[in-house]
Amino acid sequence: MALSGDLWAELPVERRIFCSVLLFSWAVYLWEAFLAHRQRRVYRTTTHVPQELGQIMDSETFEKSRLYQLDKSTFSFWSGLYSEVEGTMILLCGGIPFLWKLSGHISGRAGFGPEYEIVQSLVFLLLATLFSALTGLPWSLYNTFVIEEKHGFNQQTLGFFFKDAIKKFVVTQCILLPVTSLLLYIIKIGGDYFFIYAWLFTLVVSLVLVTIYADYIAPLFDKFIPLPEGELKQQIETMAKSIDFPLTKVYVVEGSKRSSHSNAYFYGFFKNKRIVLFDTLLEDYSALNKEPAEGEDAENEETKSKTKNKKQGCKNEEVLAVLGHELGHWKLGHTVKNIIISQMNSFLCFFLFAVLIGQKELFAAFGFYDTQPTLIGLMIIFQFIFSPYNEVLSFCLTVLSRRFEFQADAFAKELGKAKDLYSALIKLNKDNLGFPVSDWIFSMWHYSHPPLLERLQALKDAKQE
Predict the structure, then answer these.
(1) Is the pLDDT of residue 296 over 60?
(2) Which of 46, 77, 406, 431 has the most CB atoms in a 10 Å sphere around its CB?
(3) CA max distance for the chain
């Protein structure tokens, strides 16, 4: 032990930094693999419906969800292993400095010399994201067309998938490259207090993106239509008014074109809030519950029509209960609290970045001996140096999220929606093939939402009243 300690102390600082980053990365991977192994053991051994679940889940659905989650977990193991090995090889083989030099060569061929660091940074970012998209493509294809297809969730064709992937990449670059160039420029000219200006810039960008996402970005991928006039819309508006939620519009998004998973969310600031419901959440609106009309296949040739033996989605009363839960997050200030936590963390990270950016050893540790590009500094410090802090923060936010979920359920209960939320949670778990049994350590570390049984137990007393 003493000998190994002496050898470690004799290593140059940059080598110790590099080895520490690599060792921590593998430590996190092994911890995650250990947790996943525990959960897979639950999937393999829990083959019969536990007694406490007998009233809420039939054996057929239980078996389907068990096999689905087992397939997902096995896939996650192999994709996670590949990702970790790929990341390790990139670091060991000097992939980051190689890509930086290649970016400089490409930008130089376009007439931009080494003094145009921001241009070189954008080329680097474009190449890095392109590499990530291409290496991740086979895994995404397998997940969509093997696992999701096998278990009845996939609604896409190959043509739709590739068109969607290309569109996502282009839209991402249209946002990422301008924002990154402005951030790098602010850091360059910001002086001693650049971290304050950089933080303020990222704050504005995040607020703008949250504001425009559902109106301008999401419609590029899915069709949004106003919820038709009727009983459900009237009930939603009445509930929103009863808790002073400033609702302006309610949309239905055709999520069934890509997947049969369901969701709902709200967005907007101040007095301009909207609610978005996935059609797969609504029993009366889901395309998966309807027989295709004559000529519909020609009109929607890029998506597949799948017939289900039983209806998917929730009844109106259950949809209202789900929305009561979501609006509870707003009424209880969870959204604002999450924004405050996020921005406090962002400010802290930029402040520490300002402290560390001058340390040449950090750059040398990753193969940058002669130059210290700002973008590379951001990558090294935010992705590698902060990784222990990020793991701790992630766990704390997971614990906080579970607390918020219980509080939002309690809010829906106060609205008199306990019975409907109880049945809605069971239906949604069934529709999404959620497995209701989990290893306690895996659940504690990963689940941002409490396990189904815990949520149902919390609602049970009010349901019986």
Answers:
(1) no
(2) 431
(3) 79
Q: How far is CA 375 from CA 65, 75, 268, 298, 434, in A?
A: 43, 33, 31, 47, 40
* 174 has a pLDDT exceeding 60: yes
Q: Which one of the listed residues 32, 117, 148, 326 is annotated catalytic?
A: 326
Query: Percent of the chain scored above 70 by pLDDT?
Result: 91
Which residue type, as a one-letter code, is found at position 230?
A: G
Backbone angles phi, psi at 227, to 5 degrees: -60, 125
Active site residue 32: no
Confidence (pLDDT) at 262: 78
β-strand partners of 225: 252
Q: SS3 for 276? A: strand
**Element housing 440 (H / E):** helix 440-446
Nearest alpha-carbon partner for 382 in 360, 349, 359, 357? 349
How far apart CA 264 and CA 277 sit, in angstroms, is 5
In this predicted structure, what is the pLDDT of residue 285? Answer: 60
Structure tokens at 151: 């278990």
Average pLDDT, the chain: 88
Exposure string over 417-432, b if 16+ CB within 10 A, otherwise e: bbbbbbbbbbbbbbbb
Helix orientation angle between 194-212 and 334-356, rounded to the nearest 10 degrees: 150
pLDDT grade, residue 260 (50/70/90)? confident
Q: Taking the model in full, what pTM does it have?
A: 0.86
Q: What are phi and psi of 167, to 5 degrees?
A: -65, -45
Q: Which residues contact 106 (CB under 8 A, 6 or more apart)?
A: 123
Tokens of 128: 């890095």
CB of 318 within 8 A of CB of 427?
A: yes
- pLDDT at res. 286: 57
Closest CA to 164 of 75, 265, 293, 255: 255
**Closest by CA position to 249, among listed 239, 263, 236, 259:** 236
Residues in the chain: 465
> Which tokens is 317 given?
């009363």
Cα torsion angle, 175, 178, 182, 188, sign: positive
